[in-house]
Specification:
It is a single chain. This protein is α/β, with parallel strands linked by helices and 192 residues long. It contains 4 helices and 9 strands. It has a 5-stranded parallel sheet, sandwiched between helices. The chain has a two-stranded antiparallel sheet with strand order 1-2. The protein starts with a strand and ends with a strand.
Length: 192
Amino acid sequence: MEKQGKKCLRLVLVPCPFQGHINPMLQLGSILHSKGFSITIAHAQYNSPKPSSHPYFSFLPLPDTSPDHNTSSGELLAFVLELNANCKAQFKECLVEVMRQQEPDERIACIIYDELMYVSEAVAKDLTLPSILLRTGSAANFLAHNALLQLNAEGHIPFPDGYPYAWVFAGLMGGNGGKNPAPKWRWVGLMG
């Protein structure tokens, strides 16, 4: 896209190939395009976005990156892990080629990637490009994700084999008028 005769900075968006992830990334791309950025969508072959629906974007299909897993069978974690493993080299090669062909005024300003496409951060670091993570989940998802990371860091999960425990959340960050600045956890044994 050109704005007032000048070429614009390019943003590379990397969505995870699931509808709840592709749509928010494309919506963000539309907003950023309306602000004058050139948008490139780097995407896996699986469930790829429809270029004709976004004629002002350029699309960069990543060759042969889609795992053979059937996502309807519940193998989502295996699919995402394999997708990231398969994607790194091809994504880096594609970006190097884009950077080689770019005009100075149309350089890649940033990579914006879905949290499930975490390999994008490593590629951005390798190419010394800034990157931004986009979380497409809800605020509750964000809190649950952070709570699980905290529990894992404290060694509370995974749960020991044979112990039916549950966690009770005794305070939400910033809840109670800011009187509880951090979550408080306590063990509750389940009757088994």
